[in-house]
Amino acid sequence: MKVLIVVQHRLDLWNVPAWFGEHLRCDFPKLQFVIRNRYERIEQELRDAEVLFTLSLRPAQFAEARVLRWIHSPSAAVHQFMFPEFVNSDVLLTNSREVHGPVVAEHVMALIFALAKKIPEAARFQQKHEWGQESIVNEGRRLQELAGSTLGLIGVGSIGERVAKMAAAMGMRVIAAREHVEKGCPEGVEQVFAVSDLDRLLGQSDFVVVAVPLTSATERLINAARLAAMKSSACLINVGRGAQVDEIALADALRSRRIAGAALDVFEEEPPPPDSPLWSLDNLLITPHTAGLTDKLWTRHYELFSENLRRYLAHQPLLYLVDKRKGY
To answer: Which of 51, 142, 251, 323 has a Cα at 20 to 30 A from 35?
Structure first.
């Protein structure tokens, strides 16, 4: 059986390390592993591959995959695979949401702390050799205590569930919006709203965290109307996907102080173009899509993929199987 691993990324951390393939060949000596760091002319390798480990796949490439049975994505996002030919096929898809979820949740908490304690402002004063105490206290959004404040989670999957536990442990009141309200409240969540009641969540929240998969239903989920439903003292955090927030509407809301602040780790275009209004907003914290990055990234990938490969060979259910019809 042939397993094809093909990942090409501008960020070296995302590329497959040499030891990954070595460990696979050692642990699964009867399998054939082909590892490529370029997508060019990959169609020939796809023709006899039964398992594919990759970040993305085009319809024309999928058409060449004659014996493919399972695709594993090293990302949590899978919208890039949702073309009709693949969705309508019998090929399985798994993702790495449990690889990235714990790390992204930590990043969310770091952003909440940074916004509440105005850490970016303090850093700017330090760079100018200025003691900015009066400005930090008196200008812009207020310094906040997290205990007693309300966190509104949009999505309680791998990221949201962990954020809820950590935020609740800090004394925050956690409320959440989820597609399936009947599933009840995850640990740490006080109240769950239907997505149709999202404005009720927004109106109560001091911090709003977007952590849902990108689907047609969540594209532009946070638009001008939703921003208007938020408290003027509230902050928005997006670690989902850039297309879920209307960036122009967000820039307007931040510039006019319609909301107090925001932190974005994901953007519609990465990096944002030089003339994007986002760069110049003093109440916006930008992290360059680093929420899911960790020095343990590939160790986590190996643990998940090798376990799923064992399950696949034993005809057992795979971990983190994606519902292709739902897109997550």
So the answer is: 323
- One-character DSSP codes across 50-118: SEEEES---HHHHHH-SS--EEE-SSS--GGG--HHHHTSS-EEE--HHHHHHHHHHHHHHHHHHHHTT
Task: Quote the strand ranges of the chain, DSSP E.
Answer: 2-6, 32-36, 51-54, 70-72, 92-94, 150-154, 173-178, 191-194, 207-210, 235-238, 261-264, 284-286
With 0-12 / 13-18 / 19 or more C-beta atoms within 10 angstroms meaning exposed / middle / buried, residue 78 is: buried
| Count of other CB atoms within 10 angstroms of residue 115 | 25
pTM of the complete model? 0.93
Contacts of 313 (CB under 8 A, 6+ apart): 28
**CATH number of the CATH domain containing 204:** 3.40.50.720
Strand partners of residue 71? 52, 93
- How many folded domains does the chain comprise? 2
Mean pLDDT of 250-264: 98
Catalytic residues: 241, 270, 289
**322 in a structural domain:** no
First to last CA, the chain: 27
Specify if 216 maps to a domain.
yes
What ranges make up the beta strands (E) of 164-287?
Answer: 173-178, 191-194, 207-210, 235-238, 261-264, 284-286
Tell me the mean pLDDT in the region 48-66: 96
State the average pLDDT for the chain. 96
240 and 267 in contact (C-beta within 8 Å)? Answer: no
Examine the domain organization and report whether 82 and 158 are in the same domain: no
Do 66 and 130 sit in the same domain of this protein?
no
- Cα maximum dimension of the chain: 67
Q: What is the pLDDT of residues 69-124, one digit of tens each?
A: 999 999 999 999 999 999 999 999 999 999 999 999 999 999 999 999 999 999 99
DSSP category for residue 7: -
Cα dihedral across residues 151, 154, 158, 159: positive or negative:
negative
- Confidence check: pLDDT of 180 > 90: no
Mean pLDDT of all residues in 28-35: 98
